[in-house]
Specification:
The complex is a heterodimer of chains A (about 260) and B (about 200).
Chain A (H helix, E strand, L loop, with lengths): L1 E10 L3 E11 L4 E5 L6 H9 L7 E10 L2 E2 L5 H8 L1 E4 L11 H8 L8 H11 L1 H4 L11 H14 L4 E5 L7 H16 L3 E6 L2 H7 L2 E6 L2 E7 H6 L1 H6 L11 H13 L1
Parallel strand pairs in A: 3-8, 3-9, 6-7, 7-8
Antiparallel strand pairs in A: 1-2, 1-4, 4-5, 9-10
Helix pairs in contact in A: 3-6, 4-6
Chain B lengths: L1 H19 L4 E2 L9 E3 L2 E3 L1 H23 L1 H11 L1 H6 L4 H24 L3 E2 L10 H8 L4 H22 L7 H16 L14
Antiparallel strand pairs in B: 1-4, 2-3
Helix pairs in contact in B: 2-3, 2-5, 3-5, 6-7, 6-8, 7-8
Classes of the chains: A alpha/beta (about 260), B mainly alpha (about 200).
The structure holds adenosine-5'-diphosphate and magnesium ion.
Protein backbone atom coordinates (compact mmCIF):
# COMPACT_ATOMS: atom_id res chain seq x y z
CA UNK A 1 0.00 0.00 0.00
CA UNK A 2 1.34 3.38 -1.05
CA UNK A 3 -0.18 6.15 1.02
CA UNK A 4 0.15 9.88 0.77
CA UNK A 5 -0.84 11.89 3.80
CA UNK A 6 -1.65 15.57 3.64
CA UNK A 7 1.23 16.25 1.29
CA UNK A 8 2.35 19.81 0.63
CA UNK A 9 5.05 20.59 -1.89
CA UNK A 10 6.72 23.85 -2.89
CA UNK A 11 9.22 24.71 -5.63
CA UNK A 12 12.10 27.13 -5.00
CA UNK A 13 10.87 27.50 -1.38
CA UNK A 14 7.98 29.73 -2.40
CA UNK A 15 5.80 28.38 -5.19
CA UNK A 16 3.20 26.18 -3.53
CA UNK A 17 2.05 23.46 -5.93
CA UNK A 18 0.53 20.65 -3.87
CA UNK A 19 -1.72 21.90 -1.10
CA UNK A 20 -2.46 18.97 1.14
CA UNK A 21 -2.99 15.81 -0.88
CA UNK A 22 -4.12 12.55 0.69
CA UNK A 23 -4.34 9.43 -1.42
CA UNK A 24 -3.97 5.69 -1.18
CA UNK A 25 -2.86 3.31 -3.90
CA UNK A 26 -3.58 -0.28 -2.92
CA UNK A 27 -1.04 -2.97 -3.76
CA UNK A 28 -1.85 -4.88 -6.91
CA UNK A 29 -4.23 -2.22 -8.20
CA UNK A 30 -4.10 0.41 -10.92
CA UNK A 31 -4.75 3.84 -9.44
CA UNK A 32 -5.48 6.52 -12.00
CA UNK A 33 -4.82 10.22 -11.47
CA UNK A 34 -6.40 12.60 -13.93
CA UNK A 35 -6.29 16.38 -14.03
CA UNK A 36 -5.71 19.30 -16.36
CA UNK A 37 -2.28 20.63 -17.33
CA UNK A 38 -0.56 22.25 -14.38
CA UNK A 39 -2.73 20.53 -11.79
CA UNK A 40 0.37 19.10 -10.10
CA UNK A 41 0.28 15.49 -11.29
CA UNK A 42 3.93 15.37 -12.31
CA UNK A 43 4.92 17.14 -9.10
CA UNK A 44 3.10 14.48 -7.09
CA UNK A 45 4.96 11.68 -8.86
CA UNK A 46 8.27 13.50 -8.39
CA UNK A 47 7.56 13.80 -4.69
CA UNK A 48 6.76 10.10 -4.34
CA UNK A 49 9.80 8.94 -6.30
CA UNK A 50 12.38 11.11 -4.56
CA UNK A 51 13.00 13.28 -7.61
CA UNK A 52 11.82 16.61 -6.17
CA UNK A 53 15.27 17.79 -5.09
CA UNK A 54 16.40 17.49 -8.70
CA UNK A 55 13.84 20.17 -9.60
CA UNK A 56 14.45 22.31 -6.53
CA UNK A 57 11.22 21.21 -4.90
CA UNK A 58 10.56 20.38 -1.25
CA UNK A 59 8.02 18.49 0.81
CA UNK A 60 7.07 20.99 3.50
CA UNK A 61 4.32 18.99 5.17
CA UNK A 62 2.82 15.54 5.21
CA UNK A 63 4.30 12.16 4.48
CA UNK A 64 4.57 9.44 1.85
CA UNK A 65 4.65 5.83 2.96
CA UNK A 66 5.03 2.40 1.49
CA UNK A 67 3.51 0.15 4.12
CA UNK A 68 4.81 1.65 7.36
CA UNK A 69 8.02 3.06 5.93
CA UNK A 70 8.32 6.73 5.09
CA UNK A 71 9.92 7.67 1.77
CA UNK A 72 10.52 11.23 2.88
CA UNK A 73 14.13 12.33 2.59
CA UNK A 74 15.21 9.33 0.53
CA UNK A 75 16.45 9.91 -2.99
CA UNK A 76 15.36 8.02 -6.06
CA UNK A 77 18.28 5.59 -5.95
CA UNK A 78 17.32 4.38 -2.46
CA UNK A 79 13.61 4.30 -3.20
CA UNK A 80 14.15 2.09 -6.24
CA UNK A 81 16.44 -0.27 -4.36
CA UNK A 82 14.52 -0.54 -1.10
CA UNK A 83 10.93 -0.34 -2.29
CA UNK A 84 11.05 -1.31 -5.94
CA UNK A 85 9.27 1.92 -6.74
CA UNK A 86 10.32 3.38 -10.10
CA UNK A 87 9.08 6.53 -11.79
CA UNK A 88 8.76 6.57 -15.57
CA UNK A 89 8.86 10.28 -16.38
CA UNK A 90 6.64 11.95 -18.92
CA UNK A 91 7.72 12.41 -22.52
CA UNK A 92 9.47 9.05 -22.97
CA UNK A 93 12.49 9.23 -20.68
CA UNK A 94 14.97 7.28 -22.79
CA UNK A 95 18.55 8.28 -23.55
CA UNK A 96 18.60 9.37 -27.19
CA UNK A 97 22.30 8.97 -27.78
CA UNK A 98 22.53 5.47 -26.32
CA UNK A 99 21.56 2.33 -28.19
CA UNK A 100 18.51 0.35 -27.08
CA UNK A 101 20.77 -2.19 -25.39
CA UNK A 102 22.78 0.53 -23.66
CA UNK A 103 19.57 2.15 -22.46
CA UNK A 104 18.57 -1.10 -20.76
CA UNK A 105 22.07 -1.48 -19.33
CA UNK A 106 21.95 2.08 -17.99
CA UNK A 107 18.69 1.37 -16.18
CA UNK A 108 20.33 -1.70 -14.59
CA UNK A 109 23.38 0.35 -13.56
CA UNK A 110 22.88 -0.02 -9.81
CA UNK A 111 22.32 -3.78 -9.96
CA UNK A 112 25.17 -6.22 -9.38
CA UNK A 113 23.28 -9.51 -9.53
CA UNK A 114 23.85 -12.05 -12.26
CA UNK A 115 20.34 -11.93 -13.68
CA UNK A 116 20.80 -8.63 -15.51
CA UNK A 117 21.56 -10.29 -18.84
CA UNK A 118 18.62 -12.67 -18.46
CA UNK A 119 16.31 -9.79 -17.54
CA UNK A 120 17.40 -7.94 -20.66
CA UNK A 121 16.46 -10.93 -22.78
CA UNK A 122 13.09 -11.02 -20.99
CA UNK A 123 12.51 -7.42 -22.02
CA UNK A 124 13.27 -8.34 -25.62
CA UNK A 125 10.80 -11.21 -25.35
CA UNK A 126 8.21 -8.85 -23.93
CA UNK A 127 8.79 -6.31 -26.70
CA UNK A 128 9.82 -8.11 -29.90
CA UNK A 129 9.93 -4.75 -31.75
CA UNK A 130 12.92 -3.75 -29.65
CA UNK A 131 14.79 -6.93 -30.45
CA UNK A 132 15.37 -5.84 -34.03
CA UNK A 133 16.61 -2.43 -32.89
CA UNK A 134 19.18 -3.50 -30.27
CA UNK A 135 22.06 -1.50 -31.74
CA UNK A 136 19.91 1.43 -32.87
CA UNK A 137 20.24 4.76 -31.07
CA UNK A 138 17.03 5.36 -29.15
CA UNK A 139 16.71 8.89 -30.57
CA UNK A 140 16.11 7.43 -34.00
CA UNK A 141 13.27 5.09 -33.00
CA UNK A 142 9.56 5.92 -33.13
CA UNK A 143 7.57 7.34 -30.24
CA UNK A 144 5.87 4.01 -29.59
CA UNK A 145 9.17 2.16 -29.60
CA UNK A 146 10.64 4.72 -27.22
CA UNK A 147 7.75 4.24 -24.81
CA UNK A 148 8.18 0.45 -24.97
CA UNK A 149 11.88 0.98 -24.27
CA UNK A 150 11.02 3.18 -21.31
CA UNK A 151 8.88 0.36 -19.91
CA UNK A 152 11.72 -2.07 -20.60
CA UNK A 153 14.12 0.19 -18.73
CA UNK A 154 11.63 0.38 -15.90
CA UNK A 155 11.51 -3.43 -15.76
CA UNK A 156 15.32 -3.55 -15.57
CA UNK A 157 15.14 -1.84 -12.16
CA UNK A 158 13.37 -4.91 -10.64
CA UNK A 159 10.29 -2.88 -9.71
CA UNK A 160 7.15 -3.68 -7.75
CA UNK A 161 5.47 -0.30 -8.10
CA UNK A 162 5.12 1.63 -11.35
CA UNK A 163 4.59 5.40 -11.40
CA UNK A 164 3.74 6.21 -14.99
CA UNK A 165 3.47 9.84 -16.13
CA UNK A 166 1.25 10.43 -19.16
CA UNK A 167 2.39 7.42 -21.17
CA UNK A 168 0.04 8.15 -24.05
CA UNK A 169 1.33 11.69 -24.59
CA UNK A 170 1.98 12.25 -28.29
CA UNK A 171 1.33 8.66 -29.36
CA UNK A 172 -1.02 7.43 -32.06
CA UNK A 173 -4.33 5.98 -30.79
CA UNK A 174 -3.42 2.46 -31.86
CA UNK A 175 -0.11 2.59 -30.02
CA UNK A 176 -1.84 4.06 -27.00
CA UNK A 177 -4.22 1.14 -26.96
CA UNK A 178 -1.34 -1.32 -27.10
CA UNK A 179 0.38 0.59 -24.31
CA UNK A 180 -2.64 0.34 -22.05
CA UNK A 181 -2.84 -3.40 -22.71
CA UNK A 182 0.79 -3.69 -21.61
CA UNK A 183 0.07 -1.75 -18.41
CA UNK A 184 -2.91 -4.01 -17.76
CA UNK A 185 -0.75 -7.08 -18.31
CA UNK A 186 1.97 -5.81 -15.96
CA UNK A 187 -0.73 -5.25 -13.37
CA UNK A 188 -2.18 -8.74 -13.83
CA UNK A 189 1.31 -10.08 -13.23
CA UNK A 190 1.32 -8.34 -9.85
CA UNK A 191 2.56 -4.80 -10.47
CA UNK A 192 1.07 -1.96 -8.45
CA UNK A 193 0.45 0.94 -10.83
CA UNK A 194 -0.06 4.66 -10.34
CA UNK A 195 -1.08 6.01 -13.71
CA UNK A 196 -1.23 9.70 -14.51
CA UNK A 197 -3.19 10.39 -17.68
CA UNK A 198 -4.85 13.06 -19.76
CA UNK A 199 -6.48 10.30 -21.74
CA UNK A 200 -8.98 9.89 -18.91
CA UNK A 201 -11.35 7.52 -20.65
CA UNK A 202 -8.82 4.84 -21.54
CA UNK A 203 -7.06 5.16 -18.19
CA UNK A 204 -10.22 4.87 -16.08
CA UNK A 205 -11.26 1.85 -18.08
CA UNK A 206 -8.22 -0.15 -17.03
CA UNK A 207 -8.00 1.44 -13.56
CA UNK A 208 -9.42 0.14 -10.30
CA UNK A 209 -9.61 3.47 -8.52
CA UNK A 210 -9.25 7.00 -9.71
CA UNK A 211 -8.95 10.55 -8.51
CA UNK A 212 -9.12 14.00 -10.02
CA UNK A 213 -6.42 16.53 -9.20
CA UNK A 214 -7.01 20.24 -9.51
CA UNK A 215 -4.81 23.09 -8.36
CA UNK A 216 -2.84 20.77 -6.15
CA UNK A 217 -5.88 19.29 -4.42
CA UNK A 218 -7.81 16.07 -4.81
CA UNK A 219 -11.32 17.18 -5.81
CA UNK A 220 -12.83 13.78 -6.53
CA UNK A 221 -11.98 10.23 -5.60
CA UNK A 222 -13.55 6.84 -5.99
CA UNK A 223 -13.76 3.56 -7.89
CA UNK A 224 -12.77 4.05 -11.53
CA UNK A 225 -16.15 2.85 -12.75
CA UNK A 226 -17.92 5.44 -10.61
CA UNK A 227 -15.72 8.24 -11.96
CA UNK A 228 -16.50 7.15 -15.51
CA UNK A 229 -20.16 7.67 -14.67
CA UNK A 230 -19.66 10.90 -12.73
CA UNK A 231 -21.35 13.82 -14.40
CA UNK A 232 -18.56 16.36 -13.85
CA UNK A 233 -15.84 14.00 -14.90
CA UNK A 234 -17.77 13.11 -18.02
CA UNK A 235 -18.30 16.72 -18.85
CA UNK A 236 -14.86 18.12 -18.17
CA UNK A 237 -12.43 15.24 -18.60
CA UNK A 238 -14.15 12.82 -20.93
CA UNK A 239 -15.61 15.52 -23.17
CA UNK A 240 -18.85 13.57 -23.44
CA UNK A 241 -21.25 15.37 -21.18
CA UNK A 242 -24.92 15.94 -21.76
CA UNK A 243 -24.17 19.49 -22.92
CA UNK A 244 -23.27 19.82 -26.57
CA UNK A 245 -20.32 22.10 -25.98
CA UNK A 246 -18.40 23.56 -23.07
CA UNK A 247 -19.31 27.22 -22.87
CA UNK A 248 -18.16 29.96 -20.59
CA UNK A 249 -21.40 29.56 -18.68
CA UNK A 250 -20.68 25.91 -18.07
CA UNK A 251 -17.20 26.65 -16.87
CA UNK A 252 -18.62 29.10 -14.37
CA UNK A 253 -21.16 26.61 -13.20
CA UNK A 254 -18.37 24.09 -12.72
CA UNK A 255 -16.32 26.58 -10.69
CA UNK A 256 -19.34 27.12 -8.48
CA UNK A 257 -19.85 23.41 -7.99
CA UNK A 258 -16.18 22.87 -7.33
CA UNK A 259 -16.28 25.08 -4.30
CA UNK A 260 -18.68 22.62 -2.75
CA UNK A 261 -16.50 19.63 -3.37
CA UNK B 1 31.41 22.22 -10.45
CA UNK B 2 33.25 24.26 -13.08
CA UNK B 3 33.51 27.20 -10.70
CA UNK B 4 34.67 24.97 -7.87
CA UNK B 5 37.28 23.46 -10.18
CA UNK B 6 38.59 26.86 -11.23
CA UNK B 7 38.67 27.94 -7.60
CA UNK B 8 40.50 24.78 -6.60
CA UNK B 9 43.00 25.35 -9.42
CA UNK B 10 43.85 28.80 -8.17
CA UNK B 11 44.16 27.59 -4.56
CA UNK B 12 46.48 24.79 -5.65
CA UNK B 13 48.54 27.11 -7.83
CA UNK B 14 49.04 29.58 -4.98
CA UNK B 15 49.90 26.79 -2.54
CA UNK B 16 52.51 25.45 -4.92
CA UNK B 17 53.93 28.93 -5.25
CA UNK B 18 54.05 29.32 -1.47
CA UNK B 19 55.64 25.98 -0.78
CA UNK B 20 58.04 25.62 -3.70
CA UNK B 21 58.60 29.27 -4.63
CA UNK B 22 57.95 31.07 -7.86
CA UNK B 23 61.07 29.98 -9.72
CA UNK B 24 61.29 27.13 -12.19
CA UNK B 25 62.67 23.71 -11.43
CA UNK B 26 64.33 21.64 -14.07
CA UNK B 27 62.39 18.47 -14.54
CA UNK B 28 63.32 15.44 -16.50
CA UNK B 29 62.28 11.81 -16.40
CA UNK B 30 64.83 9.27 -17.55
CA UNK B 31 63.08 7.45 -20.38
CA UNK B 32 64.66 5.34 -23.10
CA UNK B 33 65.43 7.42 -26.15
CA UNK B 34 62.62 7.19 -28.64
CA UNK B 35 63.36 10.06 -31.00
CA UNK B 36 62.28 9.55 -34.58
CA UNK B 37 63.65 11.09 -37.73
CA UNK B 38 61.96 11.20 -41.09
CA UNK B 39 64.11 13.08 -43.56
CA UNK B 40 63.87 16.70 -42.48
CA UNK B 41 61.47 16.08 -39.65
CA UNK B 42 62.74 15.29 -36.18
CA UNK B 43 60.54 14.13 -33.32
CA UNK B 44 62.42 14.60 -30.03
CA UNK B 45 62.24 11.66 -27.65
CA UNK B 46 60.16 13.32 -24.93
CA UNK B 47 57.59 14.39 -27.50
CA UNK B 48 57.28 10.88 -28.86
CA UNK B 49 56.75 9.61 -25.32
CA UNK B 50 54.13 12.25 -24.68
CA UNK B 51 52.33 11.36 -27.91
CA UNK B 52 52.44 7.65 -27.14
CA UNK B 53 51.19 8.04 -23.62
CA UNK B 54 48.34 10.31 -24.70
CA UNK B 55 47.23 7.74 -27.21
CA UNK B 56 47.22 5.09 -24.50
CA UNK B 57 45.31 7.36 -22.10
CA UNK B 58 42.89 8.15 -24.91
CA UNK B 59 42.29 4.45 -25.61
CA UNK B 60 41.72 3.77 -21.92
CA UNK B 61 39.16 6.56 -21.68
CA UNK B 62 37.37 5.27 -24.77
CA UNK B 63 37.27 1.76 -23.35
CA UNK B 64 35.94 3.06 -20.06
CA UNK B 65 33.22 5.15 -21.71
CA UNK B 66 32.01 2.57 -24.21
CA UNK B 67 32.68 -0.82 -22.69
CA UNK B 68 31.96 -0.55 -18.97
CA UNK B 69 28.81 -0.07 -16.91
CA UNK B 70 30.17 3.22 -15.53
CA UNK B 71 30.79 4.45 -19.05
CA UNK B 72 27.18 3.82 -20.02
CA UNK B 73 26.04 5.58 -16.85
CA UNK B 74 28.32 8.54 -17.60
CA UNK B 75 26.96 8.94 -21.10
CA UNK B 76 23.40 8.58 -19.82
CA UNK B 77 23.95 11.17 -17.10
CA UNK B 78 25.57 13.57 -19.53
CA UNK B 79 22.42 13.42 -21.62
CA UNK B 80 19.99 14.02 -18.78
CA UNK B 81 20.70 14.07 -15.08
CA UNK B 82 17.06 13.73 -14.13
CA UNK B 83 16.34 10.76 -16.40
CA UNK B 84 19.44 9.06 -15.04
CA UNK B 85 18.33 9.66 -11.44
CA UNK B 86 14.85 8.34 -12.23
CA UNK B 87 16.37 5.02 -13.32
CA UNK B 88 18.51 4.70 -10.21
CA UNK B 89 21.80 6.13 -11.46
CA UNK B 90 23.40 8.20 -8.73
CA UNK B 91 24.12 11.29 -10.84
CA UNK B 92 26.14 13.01 -8.12
CA UNK B 93 28.51 10.07 -7.85
CA UNK B 94 28.84 9.98 -11.64
CA UNK B 95 29.76 13.67 -11.73
CA UNK B 96 32.45 13.07 -9.09
CA UNK B 97 33.74 10.10 -11.02
CA UNK B 98 34.03 12.11 -14.24
CA UNK B 99 35.79 14.84 -12.33
CA UNK B 100 38.28 12.35 -10.89
CA UNK B 101 38.81 10.78 -14.28
CA UNK B 102 39.60 14.09 -15.90
CA UNK B 103 41.94 14.94 -13.03
CA UNK B 104 43.81 11.73 -13.75
CA UNK B 105 44.13 12.53 -17.46
CA UNK B 106 45.33 16.02 -16.61
CA UNK B 107 47.94 14.60 -14.24
CA UNK B 108 49.36 12.49 -17.08
CA UNK B 109 49.33 15.52 -19.37
CA UNK B 110 50.94 17.69 -16.71
CA UNK B 111 53.85 15.34 -16.18
CA UNK B 112 54.41 15.04 -19.91
CA UNK B 113 54.35 18.79 -20.46
CA UNK B 114 56.75 19.42 -17.59
CA UNK B 115 59.04 16.92 -19.20
CA UNK B 116 59.41 19.28 -22.17
CA UNK B 117 61.33 21.75 -20.08
CA UNK B 118 60.94 23.56 -16.86
CA UNK B 119 58.42 22.92 -14.12
CA UNK B 120 56.97 25.84 -12.25
CA UNK B 121 53.70 26.90 -10.66
CA UNK B 122 52.67 28.31 -14.05
CA UNK B 123 52.93 25.02 -15.94
CA UNK B 124 49.20 24.55 -15.41
CA UNK B 125 48.35 27.36 -17.79
CA UNK B 126 49.21 24.97 -20.61
CA UNK B 127 45.74 23.60 -19.94
CA UNK B 128 44.28 26.69 -21.59
CA UNK B 129 45.40 25.29 -24.91
CA UNK B 130 42.82 22.56 -24.51
CA UNK B 131 40.06 25.09 -25.12
CA UNK B 132 40.63 25.60 -28.86
CA UNK B 133 41.33 21.88 -29.18
CA UNK B 134 37.95 20.70 -27.88
CA UNK B 135 36.00 23.53 -29.48
CA UNK B 136 37.53 22.96 -32.90
CA UNK B 137 37.01 19.22 -32.64
CA UNK B 138 33.47 19.59 -31.30
CA UNK B 139 32.60 19.64 -27.58
CA UNK B 140 30.77 16.35 -27.60
CA UNK B 141 32.92 14.45 -30.04
CA UNK B 142 35.63 12.25 -28.60
CA UNK B 143 37.39 11.53 -31.90
CA UNK B 144 37.04 15.22 -32.68
CA UNK B 145 39.22 16.19 -29.73
CA UNK B 146 41.97 13.92 -31.05
CA UNK B 147 41.81 15.49 -34.52
CA UNK B 148 41.41 18.93 -32.95
CA UNK B 149 44.57 18.31 -30.94
CA UNK B 150 46.53 17.41 -34.05
CA UNK B 151 45.20 20.43 -35.94
CA UNK B 152 46.02 22.86 -33.15
CA UNK B 153 49.45 21.28 -32.60
CA UNK B 154 50.30 21.50 -36.29
CA UNK B 155 48.98 25.02 -36.50
CA UNK B 156 51.13 26.12 -33.56
CA UNK B 157 54.22 24.42 -34.90
CA UNK B 158 53.85 25.78 -38.44
CA UNK B 159 53.07 29.29 -37.29
CA UNK B 160 55.96 29.08 -34.83
CA UNK B 161 58.51 28.19 -37.45
CA UNK B 162 57.25 30.04 -40.53
CA UNK B 163 55.33 33.10 -39.43
CA UNK B 164 56.85 34.16 -36.13
CA UNK B 165 60.30 34.64 -37.66
CA UNK B 166 58.71 37.35 -39.80
CA UNK B 167 58.51 39.46 -36.68
CA UNK B 168 55.20 38.42 -35.18
CA UNK B 169 56.47 37.24 -31.81
CA UNK B 170 53.80 35.44 -29.79
CA UNK B 171 51.54 34.88 -32.78
CA UNK B 172 51.95 31.15 -32.17
CA UNK B 173 49.73 31.38 -29.09
CA UNK B 174 47.08 33.40 -30.84
CA UNK B 175 46.85 31.38 -34.03
CA UNK B 176 44.75 28.51 -32.59
CA UNK B 177 42.12 31.01 -31.44
CA UNK B 178 41.96 32.59 -34.89
CA UNK B 179 41.55 29.12 -36.33
CA UNK B 180 38.85 28.43 -33.74
CA UNK B 181 37.01 31.58 -34.78
CA UNK B 182 37.03 30.53 -38.42
CA UNK B 183 35.89 26.98 -37.64
CA UNK B 184 33.05 28.16 -35.41
CA UNK B 185 31.82 30.53 -38.09
CA UNK B 186 31.52 27.64 -40.51
CA UNK B 187 30.51 24.86 -38.11
CA UNK B 188 29.07 26.11 -34.79
CA UNK B 189 29.29 22.66 -33.16
CA UNK B 190 32.94 22.22 -34.17
CA UNK B 191 34.29 20.02 -36.92
CA UNK B 192 32.96 16.77 -35.49
CA UNK B 193 30.26 17.97 -33.12
CA UNK B 194 27.32 15.57 -33.01
CA UNK B 195 24.48 16.28 -35.31
CA UNK B 196 21.69 16.73 -32.78
CA UNK B 197 18.89 14.24 -33.01
CA UNK B 198 15.90 16.41 -33.84
CA UNK B 199 12.25 15.47 -33.88
CA UNK B 200 9.36 17.41 -35.20
N1 LIG C 1 10.76 22.96 -11.33
C1 LIG C 1 9.69 23.76 -11.20
N2 LIG C 1 9.83 24.98 -10.67
C2 LIG C 1 8.77 25.81 -10.52
N3 LIG C 1 7.53 25.50 -10.86
C3 LIG C 1 7.30 24.30 -11.39
C4 LIG C 1 8.37 23.36 -11.61
N4 LIG C 1 7.86 22.25 -12.16
C5 LIG C 1 6.54 22.47 -12.30
N5 LIG C 1 6.20 23.70 -11.85
C6 LIG C 1 4.85 24.27 -11.83
O1 LIG C 1 4.04 23.45 -11.05
C7 LIG C 1 2.73 23.40 -11.58
C8 LIG C 1 2.31 21.96 -11.70
O2 LIG C 1 3.12 21.35 -12.64
P1 LIG C 1 3.05 19.80 -12.94
O3 LIG C 1 3.21 19.06 -11.67
O4 LIG C 1 4.06 19.53 -14.01
O5 LIG C 1 1.56 19.63 -13.50
P2 LIG C 1 0.93 18.51 -14.42
O6 LIG C 1 1.89 17.39 -14.52
O7 LIG C 1 -0.34 18.16 -13.73
O8 LIG C 1 0.67 19.15 -15.75
C9 LIG C 1 2.77 24.15 -12.90
O9 LIG C 1 2.16 25.38 -12.69
C10 LIG C 1 4.22 24.28 -13.19
O10 LIG C 1 4.47 25.49 -13.85
MG1 LIG D 1 2.82 16.54 -16.13
Amino acid sequence: MLSIENLRVVYHDVISILNGISLKAASGEISVIIGANGAGKTTLLRAISGMLKMFDGDIIEGDIKVGDFSLKGLDSTDIIKKFGLTYVMEDRPVFWYLTIEENLAAAAYSRWDRTVKADMEKVFDYFPVLNKLRQQKAGYTSGGEQQMLAIGMFLMTQPKILLFDEPSLGLAPLITEELFRIIERLNREGMTVVLVEQNAHAALQIGHRGCVLENGRVVLEGPAAALLENEDVREFYLGAGTKERKSYQDAKRYKRRKRWL
Amino acid sequence: MTIITLGLASVLRSSVQLIFGAHSYSFFIELPNASLEYGDILFPSERVWAGGLSIIAFALVLFFLFRTRWGVAIRATSESQSKAMAFGIDARFILLMVWGLSAMCIAVAGVMISNFGALSYLTGSAGLRAIPVVLIGGMDSIGGSLIGGLIVGLCEALVGSYIEPLGLVGFKDVAPYLLLLIVLFIRPYGLFGTVRIERV
